[in-house]
Write a sequence for this structure.
């Protein structure tokens, strides 16, 4: 049975999913700020984060600890070519990545949430912290995506 944390995680992801689908397609290719990623690239980064955190969550839950690298965000976004993908495809990919990630969190027992995790050179944190912080990270990028294009703020 999923823990309270897993149920919260799913509910929060569902909120992000709904908000992503509310973003007008015509905004997808627009940078969220001058010199920044487009909304497509941000969604791609959100998926890269899901992929990297899936490794972290699984390893911490199964091995009782995690220590691994950060990832080169710009290089990953470029390598996947997110800017050239249709918006609707990116949203489907985001959903699938997060269905898998939520399924992983569903299986993590409370007794494993204290597993120590070290990402790159960052200070050690618990698996619970990584899971909770992941939602904050998704919401941070959702706020960027939802920012009205500069032209509409005149």
């Amino acid at each position: 049975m999923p823990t309270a944390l897993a149920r919260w995680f799913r509910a929060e992801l569902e909120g992000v999913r709904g908000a992503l689908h509310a973003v007008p397609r015509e905004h997808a290719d627009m940078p969220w700020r001058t010199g920044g990623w487009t909304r497509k690239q941000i969604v791609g980064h959100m998926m890269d984060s899901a992929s990297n955190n899936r490794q972290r969550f699984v390893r911490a839950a199964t091995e009782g600890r995690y220590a691994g690298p950060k990832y080169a965000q710009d290089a990953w976004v470029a390598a996947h070519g997110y800017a050239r993908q249709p918006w609707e495809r990116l949203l489907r990919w985001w959903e699938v990545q997060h269905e898998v990630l939520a399924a992983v969190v569903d299986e993590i027992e409370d007794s494993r949430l204290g597993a120590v995790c070290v990402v790159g050179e960052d200070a050690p944190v618990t698996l619970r912290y990584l899971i909770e912080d992941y939602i904050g990270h998704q919401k941070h990028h959702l706020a960027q995506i939802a920012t009205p294009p500069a032209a509409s703020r005149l």
Notes: The chain is about 60% helix and 5% strand. The longest helix spans residues 39-63. The mean pLDDT is 95.
